Amino acid sequence: MESDLTWRGVEIDGWTALALLEWQRELGVDEPMLDAPLDRTDLPPPPKPAPVMPMTAAPAAPMVAAEPDHADFQNEAESLAASAQTLDQLAEAQQSFDGLQLKRGARNFVFSDGDPKARVMIIGEAPGEEEDAQGRPFVGRAGQLLDQMFAAIGMGREVPDATRAIYIGNVLKWRPPGNRRPSPDEIALSLPFLRRQVELADPEVLVLMGNTPCLAALNREGILRLRGKWVEAFGRPALPMTHPAYLLRNPVAKREAWADLLSLADRLKL
Ligand code: URA
Questions:
Q1: At what angle do helices 184-201 and 87-96 cross, to 10 degrees?
Q2: Distance from the CA of 138 to the center of ligand 1, in angstroms?
Q3: How many domains would you assign to the chain?
């Protein structure tokens, strides 16, 4: 086999080149890094480090800007949320916020559903798979149960009468991977937007569906103890309830959820 290859000044024929290639492949080399082979045994010595000069001036500032940290993102979230004057502006501001990694993995931003003029705002945890696919909160199995629960007291997200309408949002607006629980940092970075969403929608009462909204709005957990007792959240009456996903797994708890719905209907004088 003809070849014009040389290795360290020695001409090698095609068979030898092939054998060398095969030998490298057996050693695990599977990707050429450079166009020409680099003989690291034959490199010039590295340059000597520059002598250290006595310090006469303050050290130069680092050339690379520091990555924003959690506190920077928290401040940004606060100011973006505060500058929104309408729910549409708030949705746009939150969607533009890059402080949450979740945004990169999610398919859709899930802000709200239902009637923003409703007397009741329901706050859930975060979008799941179906919500992520459709860009609407509570549209999966838990969402269907939620619709049935509220229909039982004459309320719903598509009811034209605002006195019986509901408005729905979540603490997080992007789906956490694998539907894991939101982390404390994710809740903290989402909280300014949620607080502003409540202010702008201005519902008469809130329903906190499950532990995550209780943690976000009340800084308390333990939904089985909290449920059914009226508290104050974001400056208005709020009713913690067990999440419909929990009710799907524990149907016996539906009896207590029904009592909570009746308490809500009573409060609204429906
Ligand atoms: N669970 C929630 O808390 N929110 C949704 O939007 C869907 C499921």
A1: 160
A2: 5
A3: 1
